[in-house]
Amino acid sequence: MIEYLGLVYGLSRSVASYLKWKEEDKPVDRDWLEASGFAANAEKDGLRLYWADADHGISEVERSGYEVLYEVDKFSRMRRRIVRKHSGRVVSVLMGKHERAGSVSTPSILLLCWFKA
């Protein structure tokens, strides 16, 4: 009986570690939004983009209904926060807010899925 509990525990730990997502920052430059087509896709989907100051501005901008944007790679279970860096330090974070038909709706988190061909 104890062997079965050990087997179930081992399997549940394996499943839990598989389901856990890794997070990292994706540093981009000023031209990346336009060059990648990210800004055009966001505008088409009714998403307003904003670069928030990483040290002080994120909490203030979140109170205005914006959320941190992530690039999601489902295959490697990786979630990347889109940031601008200067001298190796994160200086601003890309945030977004959905606006549709004159009303504002705020999801709990905005995830943008990009797949590499």
What this model shows, in words?
The chain is α+β, with helices and mostly antiparallel strands and 117 residues long. The chain has four helices and seven strands; from the N terminus they run αβααβαβββββ. The chain has helices spanning 2-19, 32-35, 38-44, 57-63, and strands spanning 22-27, 47-53, 67-73, 78-86, 89-100, 103-105, 110-113. Strands 1, 2, 3, 4, 5, 6 and 7 form a seven-stranded mixed beta sheet that branches. A hairpin with a 2-residue loop joins strand 5 and strand 6 (103-105). It is elongated, with a radius of gyration of 18 Å.
Brief descriptors of the model:
117 residues; 7 strands; single chain; seven-stranded mixed β-sheet; alpha+beta
Uncertain spans: 101-110
Number of helices: 4
In whole angstroms, the N-to-C terminal distance is: 48 Å
Average pLDDT reading: 77
Helical content (DSSP H or I, runs of 4+): 25-40%
**Major sheet: size, sense and barrel closure?**
7 strands, mixed
- Structural class computed from helices and strand pairing: alpha+beta
Query: What is the H/E order?
Result: HEHHEHEEEEE
